[in-house]
Amino acid sequence: MNEPAGTEPVRTEPTAGGTDAPRSGLRNPAAAVRGIGAGGLAAEGIVLLLAIRPVQVLGAHLTGLAVTVIVVLAVLCLALAGLMRHAWAWWAGAAVQVALVACGFVFHASLGVLGVIFGLLWGYLLWVRRSVLR
C-alpha cells in the first residue's frame, strides 16, 4: 500500500457484526477512561476546597452550612474519584455537578459558575467515555 512516510495504517479488529472498527490504540481503554474521570473529580475536589476563601472575599458571607456543603461536595468528589471502576460512580459524578450548580443559586453565584464549568467538563468526559468504550 502507498502510505505516506512516517504514518502507520490504522489497525482494525473485527466486531460482532463482522465489520472492522478502528481500535482506540489504548492497551486498556477502560482503565484510561477511569483515569480521566478520576482526574477530573480529583481536580474538582481540590478546586472546591481552594474556592472557599476566594468566595468569601468576593463578598459572600458563607455560613457554616455553606462551608460544610462545599467541603462535603469536595470530599464526595475525592471519594468518587476512587470509585470510578463502578458504572454508578459516573452518574454520581454527574449528580455532584448538578448539586454544585444548585449551590450557586442557594449560596453564591460563583459556585454556580464552578458548577457549570465542571459540568461541561464532566459532559465531555462522559462523551469521551462513550466514544472510547464503544
From TrEMBL:
It holds the Pfam family DUF4233. Keywords: Membrane, Transmembrane, Transmembrane helix. Residues 1-26 are annotated as: Disordered. The chain crosses the membrane at residues 31-52, 58-81, 113-128. InterPro entries: DUF4233. The keyword Membrane applies. This is DUF4233 domain-containing protein. It comes from Luedemannella flava.
